[in-house]
Sequence to fold (482 residues):
Amino acid sequence: MLQNLKELQKEDLRKEVLALKADGYRFVTSTCVDLGDGRFDIIYHFDKDYQLTNIRVTITAEEKVPSISDIYFAAVFVENEIKDLFGIEFENLLIDYEGKFMITDELESPMRKKPAVKVKKGE
Amino acid sequence: MGKRTIVPFGPQHPVLPEPLQLRLVLEDEKVVEAIPAIGYVHRGLEKLAEEKDINQNIYVVERVCGICSFQQALAYCQGIEELMGIEVPDRAKYLRVIWAELHRLHSHHLWLGLLADAFGFESLFMQCWRNRELVMDLMEATAGSRVIISTNIIGGVRRDIDLDKQKFILNNLAKLEEELKKIEGSFLNDYTVKKRLVGVGVLTKQEAYELGCVGPMARASGIKMDLRTLGYAAYGELYFEPVVENDGDCYARLKVRLRECYQSIDLIRQAIFKMPEGEISTPVKGFPNGEVISRVEQPRGEDVYYIKANGTKNLERLRIRTPTFANIPALIKMLQGVDFADVPMLVLTIDPCISCTER
Fold:
């Protein structure tokens, strides 16, 4: 039930984002959702006059997503955060913190869904 | 070219009570570049929200930030209510406005005090925080606690505000307004205060929009954007205009927040006078399903909640984009080229909340 949702292939993402920028849209944020089967949704949220437009790109864990940080500078920190928390790689990230933005060296992709571990009594 | 030095500003710093680190690349006394590092107190609340059920999550999101805890819970509850098609009773909507504006008042007073402290005006800092106590008293009287008040529930609110308490609120607001007028002069007319703020960290309207600024930061640069005008809770029934200033400097950001204090006092009065009788919550059955985005105007600006539910008691994903996170790109741009001595002012005028950023 997301408003104005467009589902795109990752190859078409930058073209669409450039069009939105030319149309005067503000970058709100991006959301990464782990679908639990090795695929991830990256949803980009844009706003113009209080109207949200959302773009959804679905990728696999191994795929790289084209960065939009050169189009919207504000996306730099969101993309670095997604990289740190979900382990998703972005291509041509304007400033790449290389996994040190959230300083989570000891944790590997902590927001990814992991299979439940059953602990038996007494263990 | 002068000698280049890298100065680590924070994570522990006298003017910044919260652990944000900015690595400042200096050329003599000028900042050439600022590199932020966050994550010192990351609490993984988004992950925790996947483990807790939809009602427990209200308490989780309230802990995203103490100062705006009510608005965090409001954004979450409104999102779940939209997913489940719940119509909140009218009285609850007005009660939500009253508590939300009380939170804005105490947040802005806290910020005013911190700003005064940062430019070395100790007595003004004390005055602001003393005035804030008037708001904290209201919170305690109406909800039982001073900061995290936990009055929001899915389907309405948990507590009512009776006539006696409404009178108490109106009395305290009158006192607060009087006190605010007294300190306003020091903030707006004092020579040394102006010297520290006027013309410092100018952000044009175009820059603010392109960098995705929100809240008082955007409004101080001439962007008339306030999500309350969308009319959520009972804001649609109340009269107000977003507070806008055009200079885009630290002084403009101060003026926006000062004027917003008066606006909040006015909104609470309007809400008390217009509040209808009736129920304060509606029974909720079942669990949400689907995805939704819920947005509210927090003291610091636009708060965005993305909620994905699957028809069970747990959520698939809860994503929280807090206003400080949205304002950091603008801070980085603003810091380029300023004097090192102005860094504390600039960092403070975005009203940084690292607790929000590292939810």
User: Anything to note?
Assistant: The helical segments of chain A are 10-22, 75-86. Chain A has one domain: 5-91. Chain A has a mean pLDDT of 85. The first strand of chain A starts at residue 5 and ends at 8.
